[in-house]
Amino acid sequence: MNHKIIGAGLALATLLVSVTPAFAQSPSSTPRNERRTEVRCFVAQNRIEQRVETYRKNRDNHITRYNRMKDRLTTLVNKLTGKGYDTAKLKADLVVLDGKIQKFAADSAAFHKKLEEANDYNCGDSEGAFKSRVEEARDLLKIVRADAKDIWDYFKNTIKPDFQALRGSKPSPSPSPSV
Fold first, then answer.
1. Cα separation of 166 and 91, whole Å?
2. Domain for residue 105, yes or no?
3. Residues of the domain holding 121
4. 81-107 burial: b if 16+ Cβ within 10 Å, else e
5. Degrees, nearest 5: CA angle 109-115-116
6. What's residue 158's pLDDT?
7. What is the share, in percent, of the chain residues with pLDDT greater than 70?
């Protein structure tokens, strides 16, 4: 009976000694897995850089479009003022619009900065910092989109009706030049 217990103990010890090196090897230490990880990181970094560039172009296009809209509205208000229309409300609307455009530009710059910070992390070395930066950038993107919608809604629901109301009014008579 003692021989059976000793034999079973030796067999168990031999099994444990032969299995232990298999557990010590990590699957990522093989050259094939390392190469796969490098390729994934390279592709991910390229996608992030493309996304950052796309957002930068979109930001610049939006700001250019909003400033062009503001300039055209300012020119129109100046023409209407020259014709004798009361444009005080429209001038106040343009000041508010300019503030909304500046808020959009600031929020958009903060979003872009956060994306670039996320892009600075090396793949696999950030230990969650990359993910947290991307989450922060997503939250900022929601704010930027809300700002853009706010500008459009303000134009559609405030500025445009004010111009239409001005269209229905008559210009105040300009003083006639004395001879």
1. 12
2. yes
3. 97-165
4. eeeebebeebeebbeebeebbeebbeb
5. 90
6. 95
7. 77
